[in-house]
Specification:
- The protein contains seven helices and eight strands.
- By secondary structure, the chain is of the alpha+beta class.
- Among the domains are: 49-109, Double Stranded RNA Binding Domain (2-Layer Sandwich), CATH 3.30.160.20; 112-189, Ribosomal Protein S5, domain 2, CATH 3.30.230.
- The strands form two sheets. Strands 1-2-3-4 form a four-stranded antiparallel sheet.
- β5 and β6 (129-135) form a beta hairpin.
- It is elongated.
- It starts with a helix and ends with a helix.
Length: 202
Amino acid sequence: MAEEVIVAEVATEAQEPASKPNERKFSKGSKNPRARREKTNEKVSDGIDKKMVNVNRISKTVKGGRKMRFNAIVVAGDRNGRVGVGMGKATEVTLAIEKASVDAKRHMVKVDIAGTTIPHEVVGEFETTKVIMMPAKEGNGVIAGGKVRDVVELAGIKDITTKLYGSNNPVNCVKATFDGLMKLRSAEKIAALRGKSVEEIR
């Protein structure tokens, strides 16, 4: 009888598959760390485009030598009427751009657009820079300089004519354009402010 029990135990051990030497076993409650890492690295698109407008290097002379810092300005928009401008400072270029991108997304505002263009002519100003923006017919395209174009396109405006006066400093151009877009008012808003219908003010 004892010999039969020993033979049965040996047969059971022979039937069990030997575990591989490099095989990792995870308990029921734990998760594969590699799968968790891959899930963390997945990027979720928020539908917001960003453009770096300019990066300036700032040098400060102190007792121990010179301290270098970088100042970045970024424009963010969803190309559907929302746009924002942000600035960031850091000791590295990539970190400054990242801070500016977060600041731009945080300060996004709604812009009144009439179809593919702006509802009326407007003038944006910042310090010595002046940007005149005029409506254009569909198919005209964006007629604007590099920095003004970045803000207008990210706002979702496809047909517009602009003219720049004064300083062409990138920061001034972006902020003057943003100031002009903030002054836009749709026909419905103007009619509501005057207490009239849209047909009466046209």
